[in-house]
Amino acid sequence: MRLEVPHGLEASAAAKIIRDGLTSLLTAGVRGLMRVGVEVEVYHMLPGDLGDAIHALLPDGTRVGGFTINRRKHEDGRIVLVKATRVL
Questions:
Q1: Helix, strand, or coil here: 75?
Q2: What is the pLDDT of residues 24-80, one digit of tens each?
Q3: Residues with Cβ within 8 Å of residue 33, at least 6 apart in sequence
Q4: What is the pTM of this model?
Q5: What digits encode the pLDDT tens for the residues 3-14?
Q6: Is the dihedral of CA 15, 69, 77, 56 positive or negative?
Q7: Nearest-CA neighbor of 48 among 19, 71, 77, 69?
């Protein structure tokens, strides 16, 4: 899943939208879903601000609908990655 944060949106508001969307997907009961990756392109705010806001709402190791959430850093610094992996 690839997302772009709208201009003018605060990092905390963007993080809430991302958390709510990811939580909705992970708790929907999609059969066979094992892994979800979310890439968020950041052009108008510091990626660290958004990454920190996401991490505050979904700290590494958070469990949602049988998935474990972890954040990863991207090499180019403009993209925030969130990965959810089903725990068997």
A1: coil
A2: 999 999 999 999 998 887 766 666 788 889 889 999 999 999 999 998 766 666 677
A3: 26, 86
A4: 0.81
A5: 777 778 888 998
A6: positive
A7: 77
Buried/exposed code over 53-87 (b: 16+ C-beta within 10 A; e: otherwise): bbbebbeeebebbebebbbeeeeeeebbebbbeee
CA distance 88 to 76: 32
Q: How many domains does the chain have?
A: 1
Query: Cβ distance 55 to 69 under 8 Å?
Result: no
Token pair of 80 as six digits:
């925030």
Query: In terms of residue numbers, what domain contains 62?
Result: 2-86
Q: What local confidence, expressed as pLDDT, does residue 32 receive? A: 94
Instruction: Specify the CATH number for the domain of residue 40.
Output: 3.30.1370
pLDDT at residue 80, rounded to an integer: 74
Structure tokens at 35: 């892994």
Instruction: Give the start-end residues of each E strand in the chain.
Output: 2-4, 35-41, 62-64, 67-73, 79-86
